[in-house]
Design a protein that fits this description.
- The chain is of the alpha+beta class and about 400 residues long.
- The chain folds into three domains: about 50 residues, no CATH class; about 50 residues, no CATH class; about 280 residues, Rhopdopsin 7-helix transmembrane proteins (Up-down Bundle), CATH 1.20.1070.10.
- The protein is built from ten helices and twelve strands.
- Strand 2 and strand 3 form a beta hairpin.
- Helix 3 packs antiparallel against helix 8, helix 4 runs antiparallel to helix 5 and helix 4 packs parallel to helix 6.
- The longest helix is centred in the middle third of the chain and has 35 residues.
- The relative contact order is 0.09.
Length: about 400
């Protein structure tokens, strides 16, 4: 039956020796209503003894960030409070049985409010690593510029001429531009930086490796051409070096154009990598194209290393082959170590690994090939002569002349 009851409470008033009782209306009970509206109690403390409003449940309300769990076999007013799962909130204290999940770009704040997730990238303002990398890259760029200036200033000396000054200039400019490519990896990712950070470095570094390969081939061919009747003489000249550099670099340019036209890199917000933050990164678009680009550079470095290794025992007049061997050994080691390191890190650390590989490769070439030449040009100018460049040949000629003079005497 639908019934309606008025709930009254007997309030006692003291008047000295006398007490009076007053029935006060404190609530109602209506069976025709639904849910919590059936029982309505006046939430006024003065209506109740000691000012405490009675409750009809044996458990306190769950605080924000918790949900209500009712056990089977006991009244619904008796429950336990369980903390919401990670990524969920509960901002009500009415004993809700479920928690609400935040959107992908939000995260719970103290389990009772969804707040935007912090966005993480290599920022110039917030990351100390960016400042350190920028400073190191700028210093290396300045050093490369100084070395290029030294080679231009001493371009008529024996050291610069003996090692094909045009290829040396091309190699130095490529290394300088490779250092500048590091700045494309830093800062807020955009469509332009994402598209050109990998392709620009791949093309520029391929020019550098192609120049080293051309220098190595010329060293090997020049030694072979010294033998009487050698067929290698017809291949000597500037054209063969230019063809090697152009052809090897053109293949990398072609690969980059295909990559950018089919599945170019783009900036994205990765909300799944971490639950409490968003990684703003560049999606490579096609990992196959990215792998081919890196693999082609590794192939050029490996070929240069093999040719230089074969020419390592040539006379001292062609000592650059030894320097190229060490430089390519450094480059190959860096990029072999890059693969597992790249696959094992996440977030902005991935970009730092790429930057480290770029800087290490360029420093390896700069240190192994050009530092010894700068030492000979600046510190030991007495060795910067045709006789010192071809020391073995000069020593042999001197011995032959002295022996011939002794025989005449």
């Amino acid at each position: 039956m639908n019934t309606y009851y008025l709930i009254r409470n007997a309030a006692v008033h003291n008047h000295g020796k006398y007490k009076t009782y007053v029935l006060m209306h404190v609530g109602k009970f209506n069976t025709s209503s639904n849910g919590d509206e059936q029982l309505v109690i006046q939430q006024i403390p003065k209506f109740w003894k000691h000012g405490k409003i009675p409750v009809s449940k044996c458990s306190e309300d769950c605080p924000a960030g918790f949900r209500k769990v009712v056990k089977r076999g006991i009244p619904k007013c008796c429950f336990e409070c369980v903390k919401c799962s990670m990524g969920e909130i509960s901002n009500s204290t009415d004993g809700t049985t479920t928690c609400q999940g935040c959107s992908e770009d939000h995260w719970p704040n103290d389990m009772n409010q969804c707040v935007p997730k912090p966005i993480e990238f290599l920022s110039y303002k917030e990351d100390t690593a960016v400042l350190i990398v920028s400073t190191i890259t700028a210093l290396l760029f300045v050093k490369s510029s100084i070395i290029l200036g030294i080679f231009i200033l001493f371009r008529d000396t024996a050291v610069v001429k003996a090692n094909n000054q045009n290829l040396s200039f091309t190699l130095l400019v490529s290394i300088m531009l490779s250092f500048l490519c590091v700045f494309l990896f830093l800062g807020h990712p955009t469509h332009v930086t994402c598209m050109f950070r990998q392709t620009s470095f791949g093309i520029i570094f391929s020019v550098a490796i192609s120049s080293i390969l051309a220098k190595t081939i010329m060293v090997y061919m020049a030694f072979k051409a010294t033998k009487p009747g050698s067929p290698w003489r017809k291949f000597l000249g500037v054209k063969i070096t230019n063809c090697v550099v152009f052809f090897c670099s053109f293949l990398q340019v072609l690969l980059s154009i295909i990559w950018l036209s089919t599945s170019p890199p783009f900036p994205e917000r990765n909300t799944h990598l971490y639950k409490d933050k968003i990684i703003f990164q560049c999606n490579e678009g096609s990992m196959l194209a990215f792998s081919i680009l890196l693999g082609y550079m590794g192939l050029l470095a490996a070929v240069s290393f093999i040719v230089a290794f074969l020419a390592r025992n040539l006379p001292d007049s062609f000592n650059e082959a030894k320097n190229i061997t060490f430089s390519m050994l450094v480059v190959c080691s860096v990029w072999v170590a890059f693969i597992p390191a790249y696959m094992s890190v996440t977030g902005k650390n991935t970009v730092l690994v790429e930057i480290f590989a770029v800087i290490s490769s360029c420093v390896g070439i700069l240190g192994c090939i050009f530092f010894p030449k700068c030492y000979r040009i600046l510190i030991r100018p007495d060795l910067n002569s045709k006789c010192s460049i071809a020391s073995q040949i000069c020593d042999k000629n001197i011995k032959i002349k002295s022996t011939f003079k002794n025989l005449i005497k």
